[in-house]
Amino acid sequence: MCGISGYTGGRSVYNIIINCLESLEYRGYDSAGIAFTAGNRLSVIKCKGRIADLKKKASTRKINAQAGIAHTRWATHGKPSSLNAHPHFDSSGRIAVVHNGIIENYIDIKDKLLEKGYTFKSDTDTEVLAVLIGHYYEKMAIEKAILKAAEDITGSYAIGVILSDSPEKIIAMRHDSPLVIGIGVHENFMASDVSAILKYTNKVIYLQDKELAVISPERIEFLNSKPHDKHLPVKINYTIEQAQKTGFKHFMLKEIYEQPKVVSNILAGHITSSDKIHFDISGLDIKNIKEITIVACGTAYHSGLVAKYIIEEFARIPVNVDVGSEFRYRNPIIKDDTLFIAISQSGETADTIAAVREIKKHKVPILAVCNVLGSTLTRESSATVYTNAGPEISVASTKAFTAQITVMYLLGLFFAQEKGIFSKTRLTSELNIFKKIPNQQKEIFKQSRKINAIAKKYLNFGAFLFLGRNINYPIALEGALKLKEISYIPAEGYASGEMKHGPIALIDEYRAVVCIANDSFVFDKVLSNIQEILARKGKIIVIATEGNRRMTEFTKETVFISKTNNVYAPLLTTVVLQMFAYYVAVLKGFDVDKPRNLAKSVTVE
Ligand code: AGP
Questions:
Q1: Which of 483, 601, 603 maximizes ligand 1 atoms within 8 Å of its Cβ, making it the mutation to test the pocket?
Q2: Among 441, 402, 377, which Cα is nearest to 266's?
Q3: pLDDT of 173-189, one tens digit each?
Q4: If you measure from the C-alpha of residue 554 to the centroid of ligand 1, how many angstroms do you get, rounded to a whole number?
Q5: Tell me, what CATH number does 429's domain have?
Q6: Considering the entire predicted model, what is its pTM?
């Protein structure tokens, strides 16, 4: 949902803000722009398209700047165009603003400003904010003008402002959209997320809600802070390599291949040498939980659905799962013996955070399962379990999903351990199966050629159906989501048992059906579904367990996973479906890491 970068210091402002912006392109990529100060001159270069187009446009200019801000856009108000691209000027042309988020009451504010005689060039809410700041700047200092404008607006924002009157300053402010400040020596940075500035510094300060920072090369001043807001720099412990492709063709492929390591790291982080599971969530009264409700969106919602099977199976606690955007407006029943869990890769998803705020009103505990240190979700929850998957750059989530479900397996086992449901022997035997998963995921990578060949064969099918049963039903949903996100082929996920209740009407020789048919107590039922599809000339691709010869009687398009207990199979079946979606999109020639219309973190409702 838009990426922002900023730099003030003695090095090449242009190179740094563009370099940082390129790492943020996953957040939006329909237009881009920069603003920079030199002496008392403020200049803007912007265009429709990607950062590469902006670089082409800027290449004819000699840019010698003191400070600069940059923006890559995911359109909310107004179509992608050069006029709607950020930065936007105030009416005097002395102030330039970049913004991530949505100003919900921008029409009212625009009307008032129009009455006062101001005019507008774009369709954006951001230009309204820039003009409003400029209006107040006529009468007060810029910091006060921004704070005053912030009082007038509702919605979410992370903004960067530069002005010709103070060419070394960048002013940053945020509310419900992320913004981080990077600390350098005689220079400072600003960005929507840490990975963008990691090349230059690993010391950061997370700007707090409604806080304003005045950033100069030698100092950072904070205004509007709350008494408990801390400004001690945090040292980021992941490396720049983790945020780069390191030889892989796409981030998505790299992130798929990182999954064995991610799973092993999470296991190592929560299992003691005597096979006890530990989580640092002492504030939560686990033993007395009667129910669990999980809220999340998209892929994270699918990991919530997998968690329902896990926790009900292991810990016998009933679990409800809801999408953030539905939970909030459903007048939900919130009981104090329920544990609420919010799952999110970014920790900035507006719908999930809105659900969390609804829950917080009832003063019940919320556990965040999140990948991004210091994100809004982690700050607003009672406790956090980090998924520690490292930066996930590709818009289509892969390793973050596996990390989320790995954490949910461990939480399920932990609840069973704490409630005394599992004996020591049972726990050890579960962990022995679990610990084999990373190597079993690597076995799937050995079949990449085969998966690629299947992708080639099915590339031009107009629609796909993904079927899974029991704990692999959410994996069918996730497989369908991956395919549609990056290859734009209509794909639906279904519980295989539901096929006969409607979707079977779709089956003919032009329909491809991906069936998750690993060895399990529901295998025979899934097999019957496969026969029903074949009887109607449907084409099938199957995921089966190695050694299952019966499958090869039905189709050559079988990808095998290693033998494991059905409950852990999602950690393997999901990898096959991620690879399948990846190869289809690559073969179709699509931009896998930056699919159309999407953005990595959806910070608007
Ligand atoms: C996943 O491939 C998607 N791009 C999307 O569904 C995502 O999972 C969803 O927007 C939630 O994001 P979060 O995990 O950062 O909250």
A1: 601
A2: 402
A3: 999 888 999 999 999 99
A4: 35
A5: 3.40.50.10490
A6: 0.84
